[in-house]
Amino acid sequence: xxxxxxxxxxxGGKMPEMPxxxxxxxxxxxxxxNISAPLVLKKGAMAKIPTxxxxxxxxxETVAYLYARSGLGVKHGICLSNGVGVVDSDYxxxxxxxxxxxxxxxxxISPGERIAQMVFAPVIxxxxxxxxxxxxxxxxxxxxxxxxx
Length: 149
Description:
Layout: E1 4-7, E2 20-21, E3 29-32, E4 39-41, E5 46-50, E6 53-56, E7 62-68, H1 70-76, E8 78-80, E9 85-87, E10 96-101, E11 107-109, E12 114-122
C-alpha cells in the first residue's frame, strides 16, 4: 500500500524525519517529535506534539492508528492522552500526538525523539440495523470481570 507523506517544517525550520519501521518485523512506523527545543512534560500534564508530517491514505477503506511506544509507556508512563489516535482517510493536516505523563517524574521530550507509532489497518464500515432483541449467547449481558479476573 502506498501512502503519500508531506513533510512540514517545524518551528526551527528543520524538516522532520520520515516515519520508519524500526525493525523488519515492526507493525508500526515510528513518529518523531517535530519540535525545535526540548519540552518538559510534567507528571500529570498533557501536551500536543507535532510530528511534522501529513499523510494521504489511499481510500476510505484505510485508517492510520497512533499508539504509544511501549518503551515510553512502560519505562516512563508516557502514553497517548486519548488512548489511541485515529487518522481518518480524508484528513490532510499535520499529524500531532497527544501525550500524557502518567509516570512518577517529569519527562523531557527531545527534538526528533520517537514519541508514537503509526499502524495502518483496513476499515470495515458497518450498516446498523435497529433491533428490539439481540441473539442470546452463553455470556449474555455479563460485563466487566464476568469471565474471570
